[in-house]
Amino acid sequence: MPAIYAKAPGKIILFGEHAVVYAQPAIAIPVNKVYATTRVIPEVAGRKNQVHIKAPDIQLDVDLADLDEEHPFAVTIQQVLNAVNLDHLPSLTLLISSTIPIAAGMGSSAAIAIATIRALTDFLGKPLTAGEISSLAFEVEKIHHGTPSGIDNYVIAHQKPVFFTHGKPIEHLEIQQPTHWVIADTGEKTSTKDTVAAVRKLQALDPETYHPIFEQIGEIAFTARQALITGNIDLLGQLMGDNQRLLEQLTVSSPKLDKLISAALTAGAVGAKLSGGGRGGNMIALAPTQNTQSIESALLEAGATRVITTTLNKGET
Ligand code: MEV
């Protein structure tokens, strides 16, 4: 039996992070330049019913039987077994790797779960739909992130730009004009679980202040939806600034994020904001043209540890 391989991209949130946890809309796009891969290597001879997991990026080299049952890899495999009505896997090795920065708001945990679910279900001859894969990965995301909205697993499983509202039908955006996005990493690791919990605490203590902030972020995402489809970059830039100021009120920006945002704006970006959980991780800048070089250089000079440029192309739905 040949080895089977599956791949899942990273993602970036353009508008609406945090508020999306409170049923407000958000917009996210896949980022194909970074990805997670899982290879299933069947063990033809040797031990019986042994599943071995190798994930060199996180120095993991372990038998499934030795993993805690709450470990995200163990939960991922259990989700697959439940979905395909099996009680164990045949002997195999899972080789998992990823170029998506970890703990940086680019969906590395969801992408790893999705690549693994896809590889295993293909291997077992029971391929699932993107929607089914997304639902299984959502269960794994709960282990990583506590109370996630589900946007990461959705956009990564479907590999399409989405206008996402938790619990509502999700819209795939039909892009009419390309836009160019520069993503810069602060190099500061951030835990989405912690930032989501911090915002939850704030809103629980003072809902009268924080719920209107979520609503305003939701309105921004709603307006940005059409602006993104038509490539209205001036409006998008303004909305990014408004969204960033509200994220600052949610206390999820950081001095390094602020520094990168201001460097991008000075270098000619039409808008810039943090992306994902915040308090570190990545920021995004909207570039006025395809020529993103001056913004990339300014971000690196201001201390970004990695810069990735991605274009949201016409016809991407
Ligand atoms: C994580 O990529 C974005 C947050 O909104 C959390 C979530 O949606 O689950 C901060």
Automatic annotation (TrEMBL):
Residues 81-156 form the GHMP kinase N-terminal domain. It is found in: Cytoplasm. Keywords: ATP-binding, Cytoplasm, Kinase, Lipid biosynthesis, Lipid metabolism, Magnesium, Nucleotide-binding, Transferase. SUPFAM superfamilies: GHMP Kinase, C-terminal domain (SSF55060), Ribosomal protein S5 domain 2-like (SSF54211). GO terms for cellular component: cytosol. Its EC number is 2.7.1.36. This is mevalonate kinase.
